[in-house]
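User: Fold this; tokens only.

Assistant: Input:
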Amino acid sequence: MNSDKNPILIVVAFFSIYVIWGSTYLLNKIAVTELPPFMLAAIRFIIASLLIFLIAKIIGLKLGISKIQLKNTAIAGFLFLTFGNGVVVWALKYVDSGFAALLVSAQPLVVLLLMRFLEGKRIQLMSFIGVFLGIIGIFLLVSQKGFIANEGMTIGMIMIFVCMLSWGYGSLFVTTANLPSNFFVNTGYQMLTGGVMLLLTSVAFGESWSNPLHWSQPVQFSMLALIIFGSIVAFTSFNYLLKTVSPEKVATSTYVNPIIAMLLGWYFLNEEITIQSIIAACILLSGVYFINTKKKLVMFARFRKIKKEA
């Protein structure tokens, strides 16, 4: 972890991944109604990376990196963006933006389990409670008959879960990988490599590309906001936090993201918010809290103390 922590930067970075990323579900949902998903994501990240490099050059940052750093940024770019983001955008063709955000809110559960199986980290009692609540919340969310009956909904949900594994592994990978020391430059290379792989994916799937001047105004605005705020600002904040605080804390963005996404989807796209979804969200986010809290159960702590004294 980075010992030189700037509290103000940390607060601003958390605001970015909490609120801005919460709005990207709506923006992607609007854009994917007209644009092919992998084309959409490729344009977003390639343009964002070029803007990042331009800004970095203007402010005097060095863009040169080693071969191993280029390899690692490409791996991170694939895990986070090519697969992790590109497939989620594809899934938004079939899944409501708020619903997708609620599914992704289980990300801390995925990170916790990956840390247990890949790094051997012990799961504490509070985290076990969180996992239990998380599973119940996910079950309540995905078992709604009205949602499952929609065409493509099931495959969309499955692919989002797979994307969560990709994001979870990526979050662990970048904490130890040899990456460019500057977070801005690091973000640029991840977006460039991830964007190029998305472009190749778009070509491989035979997606039809179109002139941005022919897009509707809402789609043009959504793409602009995704590039500037969702990509440059929020993703740079994400990379900064992964090197500054623990992966579990970064994953707490899922407390706020689904709430922002659900409200925006309801207000702008008339997406339905059911009572069962609200209950599922409360249980699921409670599970996320238990996974990330450092506090111990009072009764459990007292039991251990009595046991030691005995």
